[in-house]
Amino acid sequence: MSRLSKKAICSIAPSTLAAVIAVVLMSGCASPSVPTSPADDAGSSPRWPAAFKFSQDANATTANFKIDRTIVDLLPNQEFVLWGGEPAPLVDGLVVGEITMVREGAAYAFNDDGTSKLLSDFDDSSAVWKIAVAELKVVDGFGKLAESSILQVGFTLSPDTKVKEFEAELVGLGDVIAALQIPEEEMYPFAPEAVTVLRNGALFGDISNGRIVLPNLPAEEVKQYLTVDTVDGLRVAASEEREIIEYVPSVD
pLDDT tens digits for 220-232? Predict the structure, then answer.
């Protein structure tokens, strides 16, 4: 029997949340007007790619717009009721694997009216952000995307990113973990099959000495978020009874 748990999982007013939900749940084209002091002390590994600075900053701008409060919320047995809809997991997969290659995607800037524009040159100096596409070899995980053998994953990155350097860094990480979502609309026209990493790419980490590490999140959040910090621990949590959690919005 399913257990219905009612708890406030987000404190945003519905009118605000409706406008930002795509930014919160998907990596998209986040605004560059972000704090300049993100998770500087969160990266426990000096080998963590500097290109993720963009994801760290973008995640900081949506700090109040999070539905997931711990990594367990990303498991398929945790189903959320949002705005009266049907219960459903927050993500399409919490996937463990290895990055085998990275290629250029696209570079973007802003038009005068604030809309985004695709640049013809990936190395255009006016780029505000770039998107690279990585090939992820799946070895374990939870949710429907974990059933795939290979996934194409889009990463929104800092404008000074050099793809070959980024590729070497990602491949060098070994085992990684990522919370992934299938975009509802074509997010990457240059890579239609690509999925996206939640929280503007922040929910991507590595597995070091058997422990999950999330360097893109602020250190103080990691302490609360990683209530389970091993894949085996997640497997135990995923085997527990299905839980339906009702989203309770704040009042306008």
Answer: 889 899 999 999 9
Contact 88, 79 (CB under 8 A): yes
247: pLDDT confidence band, cut at 50, 70 and 90?
confident
The per-residue b/e assignment along 77-108, b for 16 or more CB within 10 angstroms, e otherwise, is: bbbbbbeeeebebbbbbbbbbebeebebbbbb
Query: Is residue 95 within 8 Å of 101, Cβ to Cβ?
Result: no
Indicate the pairing of strand 150-157 with strand 175-181: unpaired
DSSP 110-154: E-TTS-EEEES-TT-TT-SEEEEEEEEEEEEEESGGGG-SEEEEE
163-202 residues labelled b (16+ CB within 10 A) or e (exposed): beebbebbeebebbbbbbbebeeebbeebeebbbbbbbbb
pLDDT band at 110 (very low <50, low <70, confident <90, very high): very high
Decide: 234 and 72 in contact? Cβ < 8 Å: yes
| Spans of all domains in the chain | 3-102+129-247
Task: State residue 136 phi and psi, 5-degree precision.
Answer: -110, 120
DSSP 62-114: TTT--S--SGGGGSTTEEEE-TT---EES-SEEEEEEEEEEEEEEEEEE-TTS
**Comparison of pLDDT for 177 and 37, the residue scoring more:** 177
Residue 170 clears pLDDT 60, i.e. is over it: yes
